[in-house]
Specification:
This protein has a single domain, classed as Na+/H+ antiporter like fold (Up-down Bundle), CATH 1.20.1530. The relative contact order is 0.18. It has 17 helices and no strands. It is 77% helix and 0% strand. Helix 1 crosses helix 2, helix 7 packs parallel to helix 12 and helix 9 packs parallel to helix 11. It is globular. The chain is mainly alpha-helical.
């Protein structure tokens, strides 16, 4: 009597993000190892370049879920762990001392983004999106504000790509500029925290310059990130008033609250625990090392997420506006950091 083979039961399906995350970690490990021999080229830059090369030359399939997982969960885990190396007093002191600088630059960035979009005759919401991304936290701000404005997928994708492109340039050139200008660790951290866009690149850029610069850049950037909620509310309410959609206000509030960066709370909580002496020095050191490796992994994920062909196809004008805006804001940020004697 013949029996038919029954399918195995109880097997566990692998998560969709696992292949991409595995590739991210392999790239991060390779970058960490090669970074011992590359002198002034840090491991975060190596991870970015290796990731970009793999994505655009080998073109691996099925890694998108893993890179998204990295850019969301791994980044937030790294930020929270970085808090273990700081005191809550330092976080509050640095954040409050730079708050006026941050608010000033956020307002300037939004206004300049709208002005440049009009000067270059950009259609739709692209100018507002690039302004929001430059003002607050890059892709996260664009993905939050885009649906509120009713932006098309193409406009959102273009704005995100523009911000990512400037991020890559910033990571490569900001530390060299900082050394050429003789900036202190605190001054450079304040500059990177206000002038670079995405959180992952801000932290990486600061850490390339030094541990103190990395800590300051992280605190300044997280203070800036919290402003995403009021920015989303203001942009949404202005858009609702312009389009006379009276029922849009509730939706705007819901989207803004959903954009609240709760991982900032985790970062401050870890700093508070460290201030209370919960973490022995060796544990705090190990957590900081883990966080720095995770940042390398995040930069690998950024590289694996960038399709250079799409960037070329998007055309030059919005990209030019994004670079012009980012460059102007970099100069303004440096000037204000110098005038306010931050560091």
């Amino acid at each position: 009597m013949q029996t038919t083979a029954q399918p195995l039961t109880g097997t566990i399906a692998l998560p969709r993000w696992l292949p991409g995350l595995a590739l991210v970690l392999l790239v991060a490990i390779a970058a960490r190892f090669l970074g011992r021999f590359t002198g002034p080229i840090p491991d975060v830059v190596l991870a970015l370049v290796i990731g970009l090369s793999i994505r655009n030359i080998a073109k691996p399939k099925g890694i998108e879920a893993g890179t998204r997982f990295t850019l969301f969960y791994v980044l937030r885990t790294a930020i929270i762990l970085l808090g273990a190396g700081l005191s809550v007093q330092a976080v509050i002191r640095t954040g409050s001392s730079t708050l006026a600088l941050i608010v000033t630059l956020v307002v300037m960035s939004m206004l300049l983004g709208l002005l440049l979009a009009r000067l270059f005759n950009l259609k739709g919401t692209i100018g507002t999106l690039i302004g929001a991304g430059t003002a607050i936290c890059g892709g996260s701000a664009i993905l939050t504000v885009g649906p509120i404005l009713g932006a098309s997928d193409e406009e959102i994708a273009y704005a995100v790509t523009t911000i990512f492109t400037f991020n890559i340039v910033a990571l490569l050139v900001y530390p060299a500029i900082g050394h050429a200008l003789g900036m202190s660790q605190t001054a450079f951290g304040s500059w990177a925290g206000t002038a670079v866009n995405d959180t992952s690149v801000v932290v990486a850029t600061g850490l390339v310059y030094g541990a103190t610069a990395g800590a300051v850049a992280t605190i300044v950037k997280l203070t800036r990130t919290v402003l995403l909620v009021p920015l989303a509310l203001i942009v949404g309410l202005v858009h609702a008033a312009r389009t006379h959609s009276g029922d849009a206000s509730a939706n705007v509030v819901q989207r803004a609250l959903k954009a609240m960066p709760w991982f900032v709370v985790g970062f401050v909580a870890m700093a508070a625990l460290n201030s209370l002496g919960i973490f022995p020095p060796n544990v705090a050191h190990d957590l900081a090392l883990t966080a720095s490796f995770l940042i390398v992994a995040v930069l690998a994920g950024v590289g694996l997420n960038v399709d250079l062909r799409k960037m070329v196809r998007l055309g030059p004008r919005p990209m030019l506006v994004g670079f012009l805006l980012a460059s102007i804001m970099a100069v303004c940020s440096y000037a204000l950091v110098s005038v306010m004697h931050l560091g």
